[in-house]
Each structure stands twice: as structure tokens, then as C-alpha cells.
Give the backbone structure.
Amino acid sequence: MKRLFTILAMITAVFSVIISVLPISNLAILPAIVALIFTALAFYISKKTGEVKKIIQFIFLLTILALSLSAYKAIFTSTEVTNTNELKNKEKESKEKAIEELEELELDDINLE
């Protein structure tokens, strides 16, 4: 059981660290919490047997790192949308261009049966 929880904790901790570095870092909280639960279970089982491995402490460190990165990015990163007028103008122009292209098409030659 200890080995299973340790492996699951390691996988979820690494997964949460990877996600916390990406722009979708808010989603890293869930795998980090799961990693904390698995690590706590592995730590509890290994404490019962009397042999606490360094890998369990390393997994705790990875999970704390992932949570720290996610919290940092959530607090200090803000998304700003600036100058949407250019985007709206380009969208309007592309719609007009698409309408012109559709009007230029000759659909009389097409036989629909």
C-alpha cells in the first residue's frame, strides 16, 4: 500500500508542477491536493512501519512547490486586454470581404438534384 500511495503521489505531484508552470496554472491546485492526500497516506503508513523514506519528503516538497507557483501566478499575474478596436475593425473587414467573395460566386451553373 505504501508503494502504491508513493507512486500515485509522485505522479500527481509531477503533474501538478508541470501544470503550475503552464498558463493554466489555476488547474494545478486539484492535482496538488490529491498529491498531498496520497503523500500523507504514504507517510502515515511508513510511519507505522517505522521507515520514512526521503522520497516521501521530496514529494511533499514538489507539491508545495506546485502550490506556491500556482498561488504566485494567481496573485501577481493579471490579464489585460488593450486596444480591442483594431481587432473589431479587422473582424468587420474580414466579414465584408467574405460577403463580397460570396456575392462574386456564380451559383447559376450548379445543378442541384
